[in-house]
């Protein structure tokens, strides 16, 4: 059997990280795929655990070496990507990588692994609800909030590119729906 991949994607604030954490707690066969980024650490984040924090020069070198399965400039000047070595590490441990990545990156991974991947789009109840969620975090300026909301509306337009769409209007319900889809994929 080919190595499987689970991709969870959504606009910022739609709940993909909460759903990813839920699945990782309930399925020991899943392993979180740690993304590389050029952004600075926030709070208690740990390099090699939350992200691989890279300088822009190092990130660009890895692009040149074709070390990424996918990479994107997600926000102006801030890059994120999935390293090939990260998937190899997880598969080498006999586990299934779980990617929590942006919409464009998710489409790229799905295109490269069409028969091995399950892609799930977490849809917010509405763009307005998403704006409220993002504002409640207290981490955004009015300008960055508007940038994220505009980007979210754009990303939602790609939802039909994915294998499954899960509406997250109530987190526990969305977790259980996602779990059913993942369980079926893992058992197939």
User: Any low-confidence stretches, pLDDT <50, length ≥5?
Assistant: none
In CATH, what is the homologous superfamily? P-loop containing nucleotide triphosphate hydrolases
Strand content: 15-25%
Which percent bin holds the helix content? 40-55%
- Helix-strand pattern, N to C? EHEEEHEEHEHEHHEH
User: What's the CATH first level?
Assistant: Alpha Beta
Rg of Cα set: 16 Å
CATH architecture verdict:
3-Layer(aba) Sandwich
Class by SSE composition: alpha/beta
The biggest sheet amounts to: 5 strands, parallel
Chain oligomer state: single chain
Number of separate strands: 9
Count of folded domains:
1
Roughly what is the average pLDDT, rounded to an integer?
A: 92
Determine the number of helices (DSSP H or I, runs of at least 4 residues): 7
CATH fold descriptor: Rossmann fold
Give the neighbour order of strands across the main sheet.
2-7-1-8-9
Q: Could you describe the 3D structure shown?
A:
This protein has 188 residues and is α/β, with parallel strands linked by helices. The protein has a single domain, classed as P-loop containing nucleotide triphosphate hydrolases (Rossmann fold), CATH 3.40.50. Helix content is 44%, strand content 23%. The protein contains 7 helices and 9 strands, in the order βαβββαββαβαβααβα. The strands form 2 sheets. Strands 2-7-1-8-9 form a 5-stranded parallel beta sheet. Strands 4-3-6-5 form a 4-stranded mixed beta sheet. Helix 1 (16-26) packs across helix 7 (171-187) and helix 5 runs antiparallel to helix 6 (142-156). The longest helix has 17 residues, at 171-187. The chain is globular and about 45 Å long.
